[in-house]
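Give me the fold.
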Amino acid sequence: MVKHAGTHEKGTFNLSDLMSALKTNPSFSKVGAISLFIGVARGETKEKEVVHKLELEAYPEKADEVLENICKELSDKPGIVDVQIHHLTGTFDVGEELVYVSVAGGHRSSIFPVLQEAVERYKHEAPIFKKEHITDKSGAPKSYWVNEGERHQESTRGLARAEKG
């Protein structure tokens, strides 16, 4: 049985797995709508630099705990039947899926705000780390660890992890 949330090595979890997990919920008969966020590897940075690939790492035990707690808290909101967050780790090419966030509820009006909250919370609370491999505007290849929208060069990797952990 798949948990409501967690980190998964690339290739071990996909959208079909998410849908199967949603349908195993004993209260699924109450669901009238499912909203879904699929995060994918974007091909450019906010600064319009070309992204070639991403590396995603997690502190699995803590990340799984944080993601599961977010899902449990949000599932208690009125009209919500199930919330799931499944984040992939590994190396990703542009366009590949990175994360699945789903909210199932009785009516669409209940699920959209919860979906947005789930996405914002996992991005800020879960110890999941992203390294962008880019070509900067001068044409030079570079790699940066990204933390909450800011780049951190390889030398600050430990600091970024300490802030999250």
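The helical segments are 15-23, 60-75, 108-125, 157-164.
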